[in-house]
Design goal:
alpha/beta, about 40% helix, 2 domains, Glutaredoxin, two-stranded parallel ribbon, about 220 residues, seven-stranded mixed sheet
Length: about 220
């Protein structure tokens, strides 16, 4: 009788011991899985950060300025205003802007000189956008613009600090005026909207870096 009880007690203790070993094994597995998952998350965050930095610093390729979703809204005065805040990150990869000519967004660290500078060749968008960030007005024209208008606008730009001018064949109208986040077309150099645009937007309230120099850049 006593022998049977001892045998049952021994078996029960053996089962309990086995259950404890199984539970300890499960706990070890769970700890390993938790540690593994944590390492995977940290690794993904680190890799993601490296990829993000490289994507901004990479000198090749083209990227859309997806950080600036938005659209033009046209006011009663005919001036178009970009509907969302435009980012100002300095990048080296070529930016594909959502408007033509571009009126803001990520850009090159170097600006075009915009102290009444008149250029006879098309500019790099990313350098011109940096000039807009400094509060300049960018006058652009196509081959459809009249020579008399081009000459008159050039004369106005040359005597106006914080302006620049260049050809821009891909734009929709023969003559366009652009400031940071704002743009309009004009019919000619004598269009009164030219003076209004200059008065409003040369170092205007839209300027992200008011007072920043328009000299010492590219020319």
């Amino acid at each position: 009788m006593g022998s049977a009880k001892n045998k049952n007690s021994a078996e029960r203790q053996a089962r309990i011991a086995e259950m404890r070993r199984a539970e300890q094994a499960r706990e070890r597995r769970n700890r390993l899985l938790t540690i593994g998952a944590s390492v995977a998350v940290v690794t993904a965050l680190v890799v993601g950060g490296v990829v993000l930095v490289r994507s901004q610093d990479d000198g090749g390729g083209t990227t859309a300025d997806s950080s600036n979703p938005g659209h033009w809204t046209t006011g009663k005065d005919g001036v178009k205003t970009w509907s969302s805040k435009l980012s100002q990150t300095h990048v080296t990869k070529t930016v594909k802007y959502p408007m033509t000519p571009p009126a803001g967004g990520d850009h090159d660290a170097r600006w075009m000189n915009c102290n009444g500078d008149v250029y006879t060749k098309e500019l790099n968008n990313m350098n011109a956008v940096h000039s807009l960030e400094h509060g300049s007005v960018w006058v652009t024209y196509t081959s459809k613009a009249k020579k008399a208008d081009i000459d008159a606008l050039a004369a106005k730009v040359k005597k106006t600090p914080y302006t620049l001018m260049s050809p821009y064949e891909k734009q929709a109208a023969p003559i366009m005026l652009t400031a940071w986040g704002h743009q309009r077309t004009v019919t000619s150099a004598s269009d009164p909207n030219v003076d209004k645009f200059f008065e409003t937007y040369v170092q205007g309230e839209q300027t992200p870096e008011k007072g920043a120099t328009c000299q010492g850049g590219l020319s």
